[in-house]
Request: fold
Amino acid sequence: MTLNLRLRRLTREERRTLLYGLLFISPWAFGFLAFRVVPFFMSLYYSFTFYPILESPRWIGLANFRNLFTDGRFLSSLYNTAYFAFFAVPLGACFGILLAMLLNMKVKGLSVWRTIFYLPSITPVVATALVWLWMFNPRGGIINYILSLVGLRGPGWLGDPMWAKPALILMSLWGVGTAVVIYLAALQDVPRELLEASQLDGANVLQRIRYITLPMISPVILFNVITGLIGAFQYFTEVHVMTGGSGSPADSTLMMSVYLWQSAFQFFKMGYASAQAWVMFVIIVIFTAIMFRVSGRMVYYGGR
Amino acid sequence: MTSQASAVGLPQGSRHRSSSRYLLLHSVEAIGKYILLIFFSAFFILPWVWMISTSLKNPQELAVWPPIWIPNPIRWDNYAQAFAQAEFSRFFLNTLSIALPSVVGALLSNSLVAYGFARIRWPGRDAVFAIVLATMILPGFVTFIPLYVIFHRLGWINTYAPLVVPIYFASPFFIFLLRQFFMGLPAELSDAAKVDGASEFDIFWRVILPLARPALAVVALFQFIGSWNDYFGPLIYLNDKSLYTVSLGIANMRGVYGFSNYAWIMAATVMSIVPIIVLFFFVQRTFIEGIALTGLKG
Reply:
């Protein structure tokens, strides 16, 4: 009704552009409804039901959520995911910025170095996981061999509940190349005059990084950290390939996403899995909101 | 620096000292950055070397200490065996028959939608575009169970439809990327065409799209890589081994062979990466520009 009234107030030209605009975006609009909105609410509904895939869903209220927070495996999946994200995301950001800064120092053969850093991030994740699985092998693996060259006795990595997550974090740093390319593009946009002026004023390298370079690229850091965080909360393929979907050893690599997949496709508990999905969704929304809130004070948006 | 010092007429000694200190600092910096680059590059290159080395080993060379870098003899036939054992040619064709239609779908749908957001000024446009952006943070894990149920009811399980059809309805990331590019094209182009009596669709198809080739190349490339590398989709929607993609196929090899002959698995892995690497070297610039484009989110 209100929509109708408002439409009448539009001029003919506005009505024409509205028609064309909607026509052009209609593929997205349909997909948004069919593949996002409808599943989104279906999943909310399922999360309150008992739903073994072959029967129809039966309403059980909050039981799934109550069970989740007494389910030891779910709690350890929360802990594992938090552990992974807490280390992998900041380490990835620092490593990515460091590499980009190195590349931004007028190095010879820029495209060669950039290719070396970038190639792993377009490598199929399954391939990456299979290679690292063999590198971490305590018997014939190359990582413990290199550690032994400097006199260290390497741990059991993916066979040791204490070292399995650090192994995944180390492996995740291999895929930092996309971030490096984005950071490098941002660094190249930092005005030279600003750096030169500060140098004349006696600022040293660390001061220039701290007070000029980092603030200037802060919007890009925020973008990368948020996408990195969302990715880390949904970290799945590597674990699924390396552990055959089990999250072994002793559930030490059981991520939220992996347990969710197990609930849905090994135990066929679609309602329970949907409840897990919603907890994951709420966590992601909260963290994204926190990042935006915190960044309000820390990110420099130029003149905008 | 030195010429400045002499022009001002500083005493010889101090000029000498400061210039040599300057040179020293500079050469430390110059050498230092290459040492760091080489050190970090070793970390990035090591897995490639290890992968290729392992793929050419004999079974008894796999788990020996210290590890063997160059196998003797070099077992090239690991590749032939992996190719035959894993039915690789089928996996390749399967993956292509998902990736190619997906690329077409991504190009058509995202360019249409991006045009609607970039080149037509309609009431409510910016609010709707904000929704597009907001959906980027919606995790796929929230919607996949209902989607599985829906596709199950449609009889699409164990077909490629769930992997390809949704691509024809645009995705927020590509819409954003193309919209940025379309907005950078001058408005006069559309105005001139309008004066000549071109319809909105004509302008889209004959004026804007031909100019947007670089951006379209980025979309095509990312979609191809995305489809080629996808694991989760094929994992949940495909049951028959005859339908497996390359990624699913080699992951499955590990389940079948375990660690009994990892050389085959590595050979298969190398083969799964080769198409991507070849593609990268052909269109390297498109890649780098595309990535940089995605980071320029304001």
User: Anything to note?
Assistant: Residues 30 and 190 of chain A are 41 Å apart (CA to CA). Chain A is about 70% helix and 0% strand.
